[in-house]
Amino acid sequence: MEKYTVKDIARASGGFSMLAVDQREAMRLMFAAAGMPHADKDITEFKVNAAKILSPYASAVLVDNQFCYKQIVEQQAISPKSSMIVAADQFIPGNGIPVDNVCIDKAINPFEARKNGAKALKLLVLWRQDEDAEQRKAMVKEFNEICHSAGLVSIIEPVVRPPRIGDKFDREQVIIDAAKELGDSGADLYKGEMPLFGKGDSKALLDAAKRLNDQINMPWVILSSGVEANLFCRAVRIAMQAGASGFLAGRAVWSSVIGLPDTNLMLQDISVPRLQHLGDIVDELMASR
């Protein structure tokens, strides 16, 4: 059995220009806030259309089982120019938030996902400084084994959260701590948060991204959650100058069209050029290495 590698979800340049449409209840909240219909079918329709319209310009598309994996496979929504990544994380709500905890989604069969065209699986790891590191590492180890048993690429996404108890939380240090713990965990690709939310002085941002890079012993990309869409291109550029190899992002690409009329047209007119520009940045920075 052929084993997929990170090259199978990368651009010809070797960089990653990947689209995420795996947001779940968070996307429903975005639709509701914009005054849009937000039943399951509305979320699914948006995700499938976004995959159809944007995947020709993405090296890979990340989809979720709750709303769109089955439909995207059935409708062959992802362009042959792109690859499919399936989210293999189950979000557990609690304490008033949509994602309070995460476990491996055992409903995702890696061999079936591969048969359906997937080349990678992704796991969100919520990282709290007062929770058990050994449990996190064991979950990532199990996830890596699941991926590699089917010859799939393993992508981990450590996202930091405030501690369960107390209010002492230095986000920037905790991002580094998470990378220190999981940056050499045997996964194939690390999807990390942008330091400083991508804000502020370029040199400070580059220094922070270099500190993150120093902890990660695998290719890594940034996500766009928490980064203003207008700052994301700069964030990608600076992260790549620090050692990252691209991005895996959703909100920075498509969130600005939510609530606008003619959503599919807006995806074409607004999101496609944005994704193309991001891909150009990735290729430019990879060529300079």
TrEMBL record:
Pfam families: DeoC (PF01791). Coiled coil: none annotated. It comes from the Bacteria. Keywords: Lyase. The keyword Nucleotide-binding does not apply. Gene3D superfamilies: Aldolase class I. InterPro entries: Aldolase_TIM, DeoC/FbaB/LacD_aldolase, LacD_aldolase. Belongs to the aldolase LacD family. This is Sulfofructosephosphate aldolase. It comes from Basfia succiniciproducens.
